[in-house]
Amino acid sequence: MRTSRVLLCFTVVVSACISECKYHPNWSSIDSRPLPAWYDEAKVGVFMHWGVFSVPSFGETAWLWAFWQRDHVKPYVDYMTKNYRPGFTYADFAPEFKAEFFNPDEWAEILEASGAKYFVITTKHHEGFTLWPSKVSFNWNAMQVGPKRDLIGELATAIRKKTSLHFGLYHSLFAWFDPLYVTDKSNNFKTQLYPPAKAWPELYELVNNYKPEILWSDGDAGPDWYWNSTQFLAWLYNESPVKDYVVTNDRWGNNGIMCHHGGYYTCADRYNPGKLQNHKWENAMTLDRVAWGYRRTVKLSDLMAMEELIYQIASTVSCGGNILVNVGPTAWGTIVPIFEQKLRQMGEWLKVNGEAIYSTKPWSHQNDTVTKHVWYTSKKTGNGTAVYAIVLKWPTTNILTLGAPIPTSGTVVTMLGYAGSFGFKGIGQQGITIRIPVIPFYEMPCQWGWVFKLEGLKNAASKVGF
User: For 194, 203, 299, 427, which has the most beta carbons within 10 A of its beta carbon?
Assistant: First the structure.
């Protein structure tokens, strides 16, 4: 009876909206919704994967349960056999997910210092454990076991009070071992027991209770018609409390939806195509190359160096994307120092060079035509359009040659974070050579990724916008 009532309510809400609402429950209508401008302007976000999987924190942490008991992957089976008693279940990890040192104000300060403009936190991964007291999670949630706290509510309050970041929520549509989902899957999704009993109520709770500005859907397990994705999105865009500003991604079904329908495209984990895209996209990537969640065995060599992170930021934004930088908190509720350091270093770089990242548009060129390791962005200013050359490798001589820009007599060349302008010379009909003076190391504006601002170019016009 409970499932029937939820399904009835969902159907009534959608049906009442069909004739009078702007967006209808089909992909053609859903895809016609303009992307809220704030998201494209933000460019940089921070992602966090946190849950019961943070307790074992082994291997590809968030997938340990599936690799251990569904797929029987040997390293995971061996790890569990060697370190835990016979009969130990995944649920036995939950009481150890205590988050006893979790301080949302401290997290908020680190996030603000990172230079990110938005934040996304896992509310429920594929294990099914919710970080908020969901009414349909029984006792498999952070209020009933483990922390005994509404972790999502506390984070929402701290971030909105302490920072200027947009607050986003990740939600896995499915749960590996939920009996209702397992039944639907075994029936080739011809039955629909799980969505009205679990997925839909969870999504409504998250939207109505925490009012996220991003809803990051995941769990490409089941076709979009099984999840009733377009019906939910029609409600989200027409009637929800976040309808005017919420942003969603493309993970709403495994039948060709991802990278084709929804809000912005994610296409794949760690997606960075390296060339200009004709639709807004996001590079969701990890500082730990191995895992999304915290790993106790992580090595320094497993972590992305700052030079690599700056490359990811520059190449992603140059090609029209946003970047979502993931770190994994610990089961006791802290962000380990090496992740904190990298987030703060990212913020230091953005403090100097954010002008070339935030609110920019792709230029006519993404890479330079002569010098490698140069990525371009552009932005309209009071003096026309500025072009930013993000140079990832410092020149070995005092000359920087760029083949893409076409200078004029009114061109001005500066470097973000450094006082004064630079001399230059045009190269025939196309190209520019910039003369770099001897700069003491203590006057260099940053350690990685130096940005030359070019104003007054003949070919300054931006390529595309979203």
Answer: 194
CA atoms within 13 A on the CB side of 118: 27
- Give percent above pLDDT 70 in the chain: 95
Q: Say if residue 138's pLDDT is above 50.
A: yes
Q: What is the pLDDT of residue 20?
A: 67
Burial of 165 (0-12, 13-18, 19+ CB in 10 A): buried
Residue 269: both structure tokens together = 């984990």
| All structural domains of the chain | 2-356 (3.20.20.80), 374-455 (2.60.40.1180)
Q: How far apart are the first and last CA of the chain?
A: 45
Q: Residue 194: name the closest of 217, 222, 213, 218 by CA.
A: 222
Cα distance between residue 411 and residue 214, in whole Å = 40
Q: How far is CA 345 from the centre of its chain?
A: 18
458 exposure class (CB count in 10 Å sphere: 0-12, 13-18, 19+): middle
**pLDDT single digits (tens) 226-284:** 999 999 999 999 999 999 999 999 999 999 999 999 999 999 999 999 999 999 999 99
Give 239: exposed, middle or buried? Use CB within 10 Å, 0-12, 13-18, 19+: middle
Do 202 and 194 form a contact (C-beta atoms < 8 A)?
Answer: no
Residue 143 DSSP code: T
- The C-alpha atoms of residue 262 and residue 282 are separated, in whole angstroms, by 13
Q: Which two tokens stand for residue 441?
A: 């190391």
Q: pTM for the whole thing?
A: 0.94
Which amino acid is present at 210? Y
The SS3 of residue 349 is helix
d(CA 42, CA 120) in angstroms, rounded, equals: 13
Q: For 239, phi and psi rounded to 5 degrees?
A: -130, -15
Query: What region does 322 belong to: left with phi over 0, alpha with psi -120 to 50, or beta?
Result: beta
3-state helix, strand and coil shares in percent for the chain, rounded to the nearest 5:
35, 20, 45
Distance (Å, rounded) from C-alpha 294 to C-alpha 334?
10
| Residue 64 CB burial class (10 angstroms; 0-12, 13-18, ≥19) | buried
> 69-105, pLDDT tens digit by residue?
999 999 999 999 999 999 999 999 999 999 999 999 9
Reported as a pLDDT band with limits 50, 70 and 90, residue 463 is low
Instruction: Give the integer Cα–Cα distance in Å for 388 and 391.
Output: 9
Tokens 């008991």 sit at which residue?
Answer: 69
Cα separation, 194 vs 382, in Å, equals 54
